[in-house]
Amino acid sequence: MSIYGDSTTNKLVVLFVLEKMEIPLTENSILDICCSSNNWINYMDCKEILWQLLESELIYKSENGNGEEKYNITYEGRNCLASFFTRIPQSFRDTIAEYIRQNRMHFKRTQEYLSDYSKNADGSYTITLKIQAAFVDQPLFEIKIKAPSRHSAIEATKKWHEKAPIVYETMFDMLIEE
Predict the structure, then answer these.
(1) What are phi and psi of 59, to 5 degrees?
(2) 84/94 Cα distance (integer angstroms)
């Protein structure tokens, strides 16, 4: 479904996505949701809409400890959406809500479960795995491990997005007594 053309409705769609997602989103995530994955809004229009929503203070941008900027809806944005959400057709709101329900954890993982690797002088690789909680300047959890090959480093970074909660819970339970 595509709504190209109606700027006001497209702005409401972005506000609706941010409200339903319930977590701050990077610009790339917003563009992925609204443009690449669903073709709800034209890419260039979406970039312009983000700027306009920021200027009108219906959304705000914050930076996490990694220097990554994320967007979230403001109180004024929620009020605006509450007043005008009916301009988004009900069937389209249902489509957006269903997409978000099915994909929220994917976007949460890609934004909060961070992984990277770098090559060491001895030919091995150091893998850095992090859990970056929303609105926190420093990682909630960070671990560095050494891998023997680039292939194993890549595999570990791929697995991290699925295994991060289990690893964190296990480490916490083993090391922290309450």
Answers:
(1) -135, 165
(2) 16
Nearest to 57 by CA among 6, 100, 15: 15
Are 121 and 162 a contacting pair, CB within 8 Å? Answer: no
Tell me, what's the pLDDT at 69? Answer: 85
Say what the pTM is.
0.72
Return the minimum-mean-pLDDT range out of 51-60, 104-113, 116-125, 151-160: 104-113
Give, in degrees to the nearest 5, the angle at Cα 27 between 22 and 30.
Answer: 55
Residue 65 has pLDDT above 70, yes or no: no
Domain ranges of the chain: 7-110, 112-175
Instruction: Tell me, rounded to whole angstroms, the distance of Cα 95 from its chain centroid.
Output: 19
Cα atoms in the Cβ-side hemisphere of radius 13 Å centred on 124: 8
Cα 106 from chain centre: 8
Tell which CATH classification among 3.40.50.720, 1.10.10.10, 3.40.50.300, 3.30.1490.20 matches the domain 7-110. Answer: 1.10.10.10
| pLDDT of 2 higher than 50 | no
